[in-house]
Specification:
By secondary structure, this protein is α+β, with helices and mostly antiparallel strands. The chain is built from 5 helices and 9 strands; from the N terminus they run H-E-E-E-H-E-H-E-E-E-H-E-E-H. The structure holds the ligand CSCCC(=O)C(=O)COP(=O)(O)O and zinc ion (ZN).
Amino acid sequence: MNHSDDFAQRSAELIGAGRYMHDRGWVPATSGNFSARLRSGEIAITVSGRHKGRLEPNDIMRVDLAGTSLDGSRPSAETLLHTSLYQRFGETGSVLHAHSPGSILASRVFPGGLELSDHELLKALPGITTHETRVRIPVFANDQDMNRLTARVSDYLDRQPDCPGYVIAGHGFYTWGATVDDALRHAEALEFLFDIEVRLHSRTQGDLQP
Ligand SMILES: CSCCC(=O)C(=O)COP(=O)(O)O
Ligand SMILES: [Zn+2]
């Protein structure tokens, strides 16, 4: 496959992921951003400010691993969060970011992070083969300074390299995978588990009310 076919194929996958996520209410009002690694080593990423449920081929552009635009378009405001993951994990082929209700609610209910355990759906995450597993999803304070936020995430991943995703408080979540499909499966599993954990928490809190 030549480089332009590869870019076209990855772009089509990102466009499909955007439609799927928007249909579920995870990327409202131009929020979210998506990327995929190209065979050339460059990264295909959404142009900043585009509606992620209605992406067209020219809404996907190329950046290098440092996040520098390679074609004159303005990449996602959160490009550094994507490229830092590609730099860290050689096997990562796609990164997805959503502003989903479940992740935002979870960041309010569990500001110190979430512990996911005893869920069969954990097996949708990479390397997990049993519900008898503990997966920690960190919650980082939101920050408009992408260098600072990326440094905080990187510092965490240095210590927890198996982390499958993270939440940014009041903002949304990031997850990644070997392919766009894998990253989308991780997003769907995490969003489902965020929702379940928030509901379980409110039921427990309700039980405690006089
Ligand atoms: C309207 S959402 C604010 C920006 C944001 O958090 C986001 O995910 C979308 O930014 P982008 O530059 O990637 O369009
Ligand atoms: Zn965002």
